């Protein structure tokens, strides 16, 4: 049986994830700010969290396992966000994921011309800020909040079950 307090926390995480995804697509498609490759990767954990919460709610009903999966998901998200933050602030070099060119050894003239037509944003470029913070920085704060919340729920699971 689902515990009401845990369900409320999971709903909160679901809605934070939903708002993060909607905001990302709004900024991309309505405001016209193109995301870099790492920005696109940073969306995946939010989508995964929403899917896991819905699947668990309707099918599995295993809250403790779900909480562990969500912790791992958001730790991955936090690590990608910290790496992205490091690239934005020149602490790290851009990786192959951020590079604009194709990584294959043999590339034809036509493929090069096609790549030049596609507008790709560098991972160093911050194209949108809210209150002076890049979206990557905001993502770090969101991930930390969610991870701390989930670890607190997991550590005090029996207390939440009462």
Feature tags:
162 residues, mainly alpha, Bromodomain-like, two-stranded antiparallel ribbon, 2 strands
What does this structure look like?
- By secondary structure, the chain is mainly alpha-helical.
- It has one domain (4-161): Bromodomain-like, CATH 1.20.1550.
- 69% of the residues lie in helices and 2% in strands.
- The chain is built from 6 helices and 2 strands.
- Strands 1-2 form a two-stranded antiparallel sheet.
- Strand 1 (129-130) and strand 2 (133-134) form a beta hairpin.
- Helix 1 (4-30) packs antiparallel against helix 2 and helix 2 runs antiparallel to helix 3.
- The longest helix is centred in the first third of the chain and has 27 residues, at 4-30.
- It is elongated and about 60 Å long.
- The N and C termini lie close together (12 Å).
- The mean pLDDT is 83.
**In angstroms, what separates the terminal alpha carbons?**
12 Å
Q: Supply the CATH class.
A: Mainly Alpha
H-E string: HHHHEEHH
> Major sheet: order of its strands?
1-2
Overall strand count: 2
- What is the count of helical runs? 6
Main sheet, how many strands, which sense, barrel? 2 strands, antiparallel
Class by alpha and beta content? mainly alpha
Strand content: under 5%
Classify the fold: give the CATH topology.
Answer: Bromodomain-like
Outline the low-pLDDT stretches. none
Total domain units: 1
Approximate shape: elongated
What gyration radius follows from the Cα positions, in whole Å?
19 Å
User: Which architecture does the CATH hierarchy give at level 2?
Assistant: Up-down Bundle
Average pLDDT score? 83
Helix content: 55-70%
């Amino acid at each position: 049986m689902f515990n009401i307090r845990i369900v409320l926390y999971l709903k909160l995480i679901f809605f934070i994830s939903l708002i993060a995804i909607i905001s990302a697509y709004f900024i991309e498609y309505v405001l016209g700010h193109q995301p870099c490759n790492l920005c696109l990767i940073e969306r995946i954990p939010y989508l995964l969290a929403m899917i896991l919460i819905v699947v668990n709610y309707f099918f599995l009903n295993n809250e403790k396992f779900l909480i562990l999966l969500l912790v791992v998901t958001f730790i991955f998200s936090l690590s990608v966000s910290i790496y992205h933050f490091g690239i934005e602030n020149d602490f790290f070099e851009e990786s192959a994921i951020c590079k604009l060119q194709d990584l294959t050894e043999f590339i034809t003239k036509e493929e090069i011309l096609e790549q030049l037509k596609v507008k790709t944003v560098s991972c160093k470029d911050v194209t949108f800020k809210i209150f002076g913070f890049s979206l990557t920085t905001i993502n770090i704060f969101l991930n930390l909040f969610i991870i701390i919340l989930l670890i607190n729920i997991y550590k005090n699971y029996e207390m939440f079950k009462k």
